[in-house]
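[Q] Does anyone have a clean structure-token version of this?
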Amino acid sequence: MKAIVITTPGDLRVKEREISSPAPGEILLRMQYVGFCGSDLSTYLGKNPMVNYPRIPGHEISGVITELGEEIPDGFTVGDAVTVVPYTNCGVCPSCRRGRTYACRVNQTLGVQREGAMQEYITVPWQKILRAPKLNELELAMVEPLT
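[A] Here you go.
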């Protein structure tokens, strides 16, 4: 698959990558749309101190479920259009308990601390997938900034 990789600040390349199979509890998504926001620009310019390089940017996305890993609850179907919550959090630290999951002490934000969505496929924990059947793919990609 193709991925956009910021190899070092100011150097962006399209590279070939392997498609990861979903681990237990994960879902494989095929990307539809990915936004390029201010934090992605900061990563490209080398102004985001939380980023290590190389890094695949992108966390405002819409995608289609293409494969379910093991241990996925009912309700997820191959072919569903979805978006994601880009923050992986612990759920128990003070920030998480206050509902500020983006500030979790072990946060792994897509495109910042972990590889982002500017690639053809990405695996995501099922708990981070949001379905909104009344929204189209473009609208789904706009959901993250409103969370």
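[Q] Thanks! Anything notable?
[A] The beta strands are 2-8, 11-16, 26-34, 61-68, 81-84, 121-125, 129-131.
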